[in-house]
Amino acid sequence: MMKKLKNRRQFNRPTAYYIWVGVFFLFIFILTGVFYYASQKIEYVWRWNRMPIYFAYNDDIEIISEIDGEVESIVLKEKEAVITIKGMDASESYKAPAESVKVDEAEMISSGDILASYQKWKPGLLIIGLWFTLKISVIATIFGIIIGTIGGLSRVSSNPAFRWLAIAYVELIRGSPLMVQILIWYFVLGTLINNVLATYGFDRLSAFWYGVASLSCFAGAYVTEIVRAGIQSIHRMQTEAARSLGMSYVQSMLHIILPQAMRRILPPLAGQFISLIKDSSLLGIIAIRELTKAAREAVTASLQPFEIYLAAAALYLVLTFTLSMYVQRLEKKIAIA
Amino acid sequence: MIDVRNIYKTFTQPHEVKALVDVSTKIEQGEVVVVCGPSGSGKSTYLRCLNRLEIADSGQIIIDGIDVLDPKTNINQLRAEVGMVFQSFNLFPHKTVFNNIMLAQQVVRKRSKQEAQDKTMELLEKVGITDKSEVFPDNLSGGQQQRVAIARALAMDPKVMLFDEPTSALDPEMIGEVLDVMKTLAREGMTMVVVSHEMGFAREVADRVIFMDEGAVVEVGTPEHFFTNPTHDRTKLFLSQIL
Questions:
Q1: Residue A110 gets which letter from DSSP?
Q2: Nearest residue of chain A to residue B95 (CA atoms)
Q3: Other residues' Cβ atoms within 10 Å of the Cβ of residue A195
Q4: What do you get for the CA distance between the two ends of chain B, in Å?
Q5: Binding-site residues on chain B for chain A (CB distance < 8 A)
Q6: Residues contacting residue B37 through CB under 8 Å, at least 6 positions apart
Q7: Which chain A residue's Cα is nearest to B80?
Q8: A250: how many CB neighbours lie within 10 A of its CB?
Q9: Contacts of residue B158 in chain A, CB cutoff 8 Å?
Q10: Each residue of A235-285: pLDDT tens digit?
Q11: Which residues of B touch A238 (CB under 8 A)?
């Protein structure tokens, strides 16, 4: 609010300020107008009304008997019914919501008959994709912070083994494209790791976890540099004060340097994780059905690329905008403390 | 108490500076020594060598029977016995005044919370800041911050206190309150090494004054000797400039 007032005062006349505000909205309006006009020119048929099914849809569910026989009993338990079919040499039970049952007791049933049918809400493709994107991003963020903190501490360590490892890691990761790293994680490291796991009788890791690994390692390298910069921005005098009291290196890091560094790190860290959310869109290449991959599948099915890609972009925006708002609030909160 | 023998220290970065050249001093228990000299004379380096914030290149430093420069010495244990107060206070900005004083007691001295709290209250009273205990350092005046810094160092029950130009960063009207706390400490028999230009303080409470120039000790003497008939020309010149 204060900032707004200050901006307004830069103008000699208040009306001039509002004219330029008007220019902004006009510009946005013209831009969307031109876009819409162009899409009309190529005779694109907008079908926003078909979009909801990619978010959620009401699915018809039919419960079908797998055997021939007689309905032996229909037991109602609260709102659920258990239908038991007695066949020639076996009996089967099916569960369904009570009001959806389509058969009566003692009715003769043949295999393939509908016992019950009802409708149930299911998440659409885009929501499934969004959920995967969110899940991968959260897990990769957590690992990214862990890797980055260890990396950052190693990076400022005077021990050459730690420091050089950290430098090598950062340079390696930052020097190659994420797309290539994802492919290496899945097709090279993934093959090796899964082979080893299979040899020792463990389950193979799914593409999902290689996706998480590639994103964590990628973000970790950038976080390492952010943490290093944060630590170095505090360092000397505060360390000296802590050490002069008799605190060890670890104690002064833990109680004095890191808590202060964290505050300075927060804004660039948030930027990094917003990037991570967007970078996860590359994971479709190793068959993880995150938001972008899901959108592409939806386009293949519907032939409505305009609506679906715009919707996907909007969903990414929701994620990144929420995160950046949350971090802004967090910053204000710790600025006071 | 503090026995410094022939220490040398040369800085190579950013360019070679001989900060300490063959410095030897002997400070007895309960003595208050003021170290003065022109800027760049090595007095701060000398002080920082005492608790190994700088590592002397050669020579020997013995504090309370402990060899400071011996790599086998547990330096953290030694530093807990040697309190230090900095020119720029260096309080921990993310902790309240109270917690600034609490932290090292619990982390280094392993005191119980109750014990540390009692000690903290006692010290806040001693330096006269009881009403600001829940305030963050940035909201205090320079003089108040420096008094908190002294309390923080005293919380470790040190045997020696080192002061590195404790009043140089203060507005003139705040110097008095900090010097008052230091005078009280001196009267209580604390062994103190004070790098300072506060000649009034030196005259009033110092047992000895050490004058350094170009990394070497030029003159050592009682304040009386130092201020009334210094022997060296450099001392005379320095005194004529600052008095």
A1: -
A2: A337
A3: 10
A4: 31
A5: 51, 53, 76-84, 86, 88, 90-94, 103-104, 107-108, 152-153, 156
A6: B43, B211, B212, B213, B218, B238
A7: A246
A8: 9
A9: none
A10: 789 999 999 999 999 999 999 999 999 888 988 999 999 999 999 999 999
A11: 90, 92
Sign of CA dihedral B147, B150, B151, B152: positive
* Shortest Cα distance, chain A CAs vs residue B157, angstroms: 11
Residue tagged 């504090």 (tokens): B63
With contacts defined as CB-CB under 8 Å, which chain A residues touch B94? Answer: 259-260, 263, 337
For B145, the token pair is 């911050």
Chain A: residue nearest B162 by CA? A244
Band (pLDDT 50/70/90 cuts) for residue A4 is low
pLDDT digits (tens, 9 = 90+) for A38-94: 999 998 888 888 889 899 988 888 888 888 888 888 888 888 888 888 887 788 888
Quick check: A112 pLDDT over 90?
A: no
Quote the ipTM score.
Answer: 0.91
Mean pLDDT, all residues of chain A? 90
Dihedral (C-alpha) A313, A319, A322, A326: value to the nearest 10 degrees? Answer: -140
Size of interface A-B (CB pairs under 8 A): 59
Q: Measuring CA to CA, how many Å separate B82 from each of A34, A248, B48, B162?
A: 74, 15, 11, 7
Sheet (strand B66-67) strand order: B17-27, B2-11, B58-63, B66-67
Residue A276 C-alpha from the chain's centroid: 9
Contact A246 B76 (CB under 8 A): yes
CB contacts of A240 in chain B (<8 Å) are 53, 86, 90
Phi and psi at residue B12, to the nearest 5°: -105, -20
What is the DSSP-derived secondary structure letter of residue A206?
P
Contact B108 A245 (CB under 8 A): yes
DSSP state, residue A101: B
Distances (CA, A) of B50 to A257, B2, B42, B159: 24, 8, 13, 13
Reported as a pLDDT band with limits 50, 70 and 90, residue A181 is: very high
CB contact under 8 A, A256 and B92: yes
**Which amino acid does the sequence have at A36?**
Y
Task: Find chain B residues with C-beta within 8 A of A248's C-beta.
Answer: 76
* pLDDT tens sequence across B178-207: 999 999 999 999 999 999 988 899 999 999
State whether B79 and A243 contact (CB < 8 Å): yes
β-pairing verdict for B160-164 and B208-213 = unpaired
Would you call A240 and B103 a contact, using CB atoms and an 8 Å cutoff?
no
How much is the average pLDDT of A179-195? Answer: 96
Q: Give the one of A240, A248, A337 whose C-beta lies nearest to B76's C-beta.
A: A248
Whole-number pLDDT of residue A94: 86
Q: Which phi and psi (to 5°) does residue A34 adopt?
A: -60, -45
Q: How far is A96 from chain B (nearest CA, A)?
A: 59
pTM recorded for the entire structure:
0.80
User: B15 — phi, psi (to 5°)?
Assistant: -145, 165
CA distance B136 to chain A (A): 9
